Amino acid sequence: MTTVIAGIAGSLRRDSVNRQLLHAAARALAPGVQLNTIDLFDRVPPFNEDWEATPAPLAVAELRNLISRADGLLIATPEYNGSIPGQLKNALDWASRPRGTAALQGKPTAVISASPGARGAGSAAADLRKILAIAGANVTATGLAVPRAFTQFRPDGQLADPTLDRRLRAVVYDLLAAVAHRRQAA
Question: CB under 8 Å, gap of 24 or more: what pairs does 166-169 form?
Fold first, then answer.
């Protein structure tokens, strides 16, 4: 059985360091595990509770479906003005609804972050973990913040620092353990 991890880069930029971080995580996956990147946040409309009673906008339905079908979720966030990007928060608001049957409910989820700053988007990662927990996701205890991100990747896309690479692999391992635990409990 293939395990599917949905990957979300919180930045809309095609070549963002957080997208690079997701690609580095994908290389750390074991055989039989695939990372499917969700790239549709630029089409997800602003959250509007009035629209919940009607069929969700197409991009919202697609987002919810991709998250629901995945076994786990790996989110890489940048830091914008000390927190997560607005488009990421908006998408999570949609994925957290409707309460009780939301795509995020119980979903094993790991948070990683990267930024050019010295803290590696650590404040955004902390905010994201809080948002995900309130939304009902099962957030893993491990995470990774990559500082000075523009200098951290080799030309092949791997993390240049072996310690950061080991820590990224630990995040992936813990996420897969949470996925396995959820499957056993089902």
Answer: 167/142, 168/21, 168/24, 168/25, 168/28, 168/112, 168/144, 169/28
Please state, for a pLDDT cut of 90, what percent of the chain lies above it. Answer: 85
Asked whether residue 110 carries a pLDDT value surpassing 90, the answer given is yes
Distances (CA, A) of 114 to 39, 55, 104, 126, 178: 18, 35, 23, 13, 23
Strands 108-114, 33-38: pairing kind: unpaired
CA-CA distance, 73 to 67, in Å (whole number)?
7
Domains of the chain: 3-185 (3.40.50.360)
Mean pLDDT calculated for residue range 114-138: 96
How far, in Å, CA of 104 to CA of 70, rounded? 10
